[in-house]
Design goal:
Strand 5 and strand 6 form a beta hairpin. Strands 16-15-17-18-14-19-20-21-22 form a nine-stranded mixed β-sheet, sandwiched between helices. The chain has a five-stranded mixed β-sheet with strand order 10-9-11-12-13, sandwiched between helices. The protein has three domains: 4-60, no CATH class; 84-297, 3-Layer(aba) Sandwich (Dna Topoisomerase Vi A Subunit, Chain: A, domain 2), CATH 3.40.1360; 325-574, P-loop containing nucleotide triphosphate hydrolases (Rossmann fold, 3-Layer(aba) Sandwich). The longest helix has 18 residues, at 453-470. It is globular and about 85 Å long. It is of the alpha/beta class. Helices cover 27% and strands 19% of the residues.
């Protein structure tokens, strides 16, 4: 018989009595239905078999390893003889029947939840190595759905397994359009472009992780997506994940939003011309307005991108999360600057699903670092001697969350900046990390090569800034201050300013944001007050304004959490340990 906690691995929530036959809501379809509370999912706890009588989601519940994912695989039914009406529809879109047959486009009757009835649909069948992995269904009203629980991969993946170039488009119709002009080395993303207002989009890009090996040896990757806000966001993330240096952009003529529009309005020759006139992705160097025209128009209509909440209402007026920025955290040793960075990173993962790369060699062995993060997520200690110790179930939930969002970098050959940045680049491409931490700066291997310390720091920070912009990351560096001055007997607890960071004023000049973490009364063990001094914010209209009076928080030692001063941890409501519902 399966155990109740095993339901959590499948996103299934059940709070009733445990018996052989149980029913509950379906995590795949119930949230989309009018009858959201209807118990349409039947589970046999003796065999582990489960079936949703509404959407058809089914399988067997088994114990899962931490990194193991179990996907539903649809059955392939070879039905390439399309209805005449469907063939004519594609002909109107200038896509001939031989292209449909080659791509194994089929049709069937399928239940569509948007209209809550069966409809005739087009089936775009997703294959990998000849095996059917997923199906996207499309009805006549452009309602879409995919097989519940299936793995997300690119459409047309087998067409690029032996090529050294490829084209990535935003929809299956665009893939078929490029096939029509002989460019069969084309794949489509499975979910279209993300909404520009979506805060967490990492889940929409899981198909990159699932198919990354197909792109590793590509010499050139052409991206041909819609020229709108959503499409540009998709293009930027694809380029960031696959390597901007080998990306080319295919632009479409005025009045055409995608490849199929070009094919229908202007014909094959124009689509070929668009491909042949592809331009390099702007990585660095000289730019013109035309290179950033779309971004400028988006900014004009929608406003500039402002920072996202840190999770602390008292801190947000002064500092928020904004991508492609280089932040420096400083403070007297032992005052909690590393722990506070961990907390902000954890908040970013909980709120937005962000993934992080961590170079923190002082937190070794690695198990200690990960355990700190598990305690921070759960909100309890794992200390075996504590009466408030977390349960094994909670520990497992914490490990799963940390395993998904945090990746430790510990190069064994060298701690050079180049080596660490290479590891971060790998994590950007393979895991889609959104931010990185170097903690502390002085643990990097520094070869001055005849430079003064100030010039070496300036050169190093310039490299960090370029890396930050190129990969659109939140880059956090922890930097120690110089020995603090003594002033009337209290100088050993002076608040370090940005100009007191070891290495000179380059820190203030190069960093976008600088924050000091300071304990005002460190000699009193019972006083857990932590002052957050925001010393520099480069883009104050977008991120926040420096503090006059510091933001006060409380540090909770058993959980390693930073709580609102005199209050609780503000994101507790997002962490559901009982039902094992991990956000993002």
């Amino acid at each position: 018989m399966i155990q109740k906690h095993q339901l959590n691995d499948y996103g299934i929530t059940y709070k009733g009595s445990w018996k052989e036959e149980i029913k509950t809501t379906c995590p795949k379809c119930s949230h989309q239905r009018k009858k959201k509370k209807e118990q349409c999912l039947a589970i046999n706890t003796k065999t582990g078999l489960y079936t949703c009588h509404h959407c058809g989601w089914s399988g067997v519940i088994r114990e899962k390893r931490m990194n193991e994912k179990q996907y539903i695989k649809p059955k392939w039914v070879n039905g390439t003889k399309l209805p005449e009406s469907m063939v004519k529809y594609f002909e109107k879109r200038k896509i001939p029947q031989d292209v449909l047959i080659r791509n194994k486009v089929t049709s069937k009757k399928e239940y569509m939840p948007q209209v809550q009835k069966n409809r005739g649909v087009i089936c775009f069948n997703y294959f990998r190595e000849g095996e059917l992995i997923n199906i996207k269904y499309r009805d006549g009203d452009k309602n879409f759905k995919q097989v519940a629980g299936a793995e997300k991969i690119f459409y047309g993946l087998d067409d690029i397994k032996e090529t050294n170039t490829c084209i990535i488009v935003e929809g299956e119709m665009d893939k078929l359009s490029f096939d029509t002009i002989g460019k069969t080395e084309t794949v489509s993303v499975p979910d279209g472009a993300p909404n520009p207002n979506a805060k967490n989009v990492d889940g929409k890009f899981s198909y990159i992780d699932n198919c990354h090996s197909y792109f590793e040896n590509m010499d050139a990757i052409f991206i041909a997506v819609d020229n709108d806000v959503n499409g540009r966001r998709l293009r930027e993330e694809l380029a960031r994940r696959l390597g901007k240096e080998r990306v080319l952009i295919i632009d479409f003529p005025e009045g055409c939003k995608d490849a199929n529009d070009v094919l229908v309005i202007h014909g094959k020759e124009k689509l070929i011309e668009c491909y042949e006139n592809a331009r390099d992705y702007p990585v660095e160097g000289v730019f013109s307005v035309s290179d950033v025209e779309g971004l400028m128009i988006d900014s004009f209509h929608n406003g500039k991108i402002k920072g996202l909440s840190t999770g602390y209402p008292t801190l947000d007026p002064h500092y928020t999360f904004r991508m492609a920025e280089f932040d420096v955290f400083t403070g007297i040793p032992g005052h909690g600057k590393t722990s506070f960075c961990f907390q902000l990173m954890m908040n970013g993962s909980i709120l937005y699903g962000w993934k992080w790369g961590l170079f923190s060699p002082e937190n070794y062995p690695i198990t200690e670092l990960y355990e700190t993060l598990v305690e921070m997520y759960i909100g309890k200690t794992s200390d075996i001697e504590s009466s408030q110790r977390m349960s094994m179930t909670e520990y497992s939930v914490g490990m799963k969350f940390v395993n998904k969002h945090f990746f430790v970098v510990y190069p064994e050959d060298s701690f050079s900046l180049k080596n660490v940045l290479d590891k971060f680049k790998h994590l950007v491409l393979r895991k889609g990390i959104k931010g990185v931490l170097v903690d502390p700066f002085n643990q990097l291997d520094h070869d001055l090569k005849g430079l003064t310390e100030a010039l070496h720091v300036a050169k190093t920070l310039n490299e960090i800034r370029r890396f930050t912009k190129n990969y659109h990351l939140k880059f956090i560096v922890v930097a120690h201050p110089i020995t603090m001055r003594s002033d009337k007997g209290i100088g050993d607890n002076e608040v370090p300013t940005a100009y007191r960071i070891a290495g000179g004023s380059n820190w203030f000049n190069k960093a976008d944001n600088i924050i000091t973490v300071h304990r005002p009364n460190p000699k009193d063990f019972r006083d857990t007050t932590v002052d957050i001094h925001v010393q520099k914010i480069k883009f104050q209209k977008l991120v926040g304004v420096p503090t006059g009076t510091p933001v006060k928080l409380n540090y909770h030692r058993p959980s390693n959490r930073f709580k609102i001063f005199g209050g609780d941890y503000p994101l507790e409501y997002l962490i559901n340990i009982t039902d094992n519902l991990i956000p993002y």
